[in-house]
What we know:
This protein is an alpha/beta fold.
Amino acid sequence: MQVPDCFRGLLCVKEESLKVPPMQHFQTAASVLTHRLPISENLMVLLMEVNIMNSDLAIVRGVTFYFPDIKRNKELSDASLFASLRAMQESSAANTAVLAFPAWQATAHATSFDWQDQVPGDGTLTTLIRRAKEELGLRVFLKPMINVSNGDWRAYINFLGQGAKCEGTWEEWFESYGAYMLHFAELAERTGCELLYIGCEQVMSESREDDWRSLIAQIRQRYHGLLTYNTDKYREEWVTWWDAVDVISSSGYYPEGSWPENLKRIEPVVKKYDKPFFFAECGCPSRRGAGALPNDWTRMGEKDFEEQARYYRDMLSHMEAAPWVRGCAIWAWSTEDAFCSGDNDDYSFFDKPAAAVLKEMYEKW
């Protein structure tokens, strides 16, 4: 039986040795198809009869489309956001947009946060996702994030536990975080997002395996697409619950020249869990010396566009040479980038030499 072309758009399919796939893979395909096709009961039955083995994530030539400040973003119309997204695609040859936005908790030890007024509205996201798919042909991954208002990195969110009743607890935090994630799981389902990030670089929480498994089970009741957790650099082998998600991913902020050794370290993890893998974030500021420590956004240096471009070529050439790496999502294209000068030293590649490198590499990947 031939697999419909629209099914192949999400999954790479090997049709030898046909077996019944995990139900989640069928649900993923059906969810995406129902957002793209008038689907009859007969077609749904036909889909259920399609046997697929070793489904895998199609290559992600991604860019993170980041909403950095909701107050500023509210000043951008839906048309302006789409114009920026179109410019991002034209600059990069991306096939995937990762829509990322943070909610903010007061400190690393706060157990709750009021995210509703901190993130883009459902209407804004729904319109942008629809137009990204229909007019630009992009896949859309949804990435709700959590940041800390006092400047602490989200990796340091942590609680004492062990009977410290006067302190906040992980249980309280996961209740608040879960409400946030479940809301966007439902939005991702309604809009046909191909993948949902359930967390990003929340390093101190990664030992809370039971809490993450419980949250994942709740998310799967609302969203039937692919799930990933974005661990931090050097953390790929330390997450013990990769089996609970569909895709393994990490932040690939590895020093220039170190890609071969880090890819060699990560590959056994991917083989152990037999899951697709991509770099959920990667990139480099356009500053002198940034290639040696690309994750450090606070490191100062002279503006150096060529260092960023050189880093992109080194990074992408090694990724593309590793067939088990299913792509990456460059960090980042701000929603405002298309309306600003590219004469800055941050992670953006807009109007910089790195844009030409990215487009060249993505067009051949």
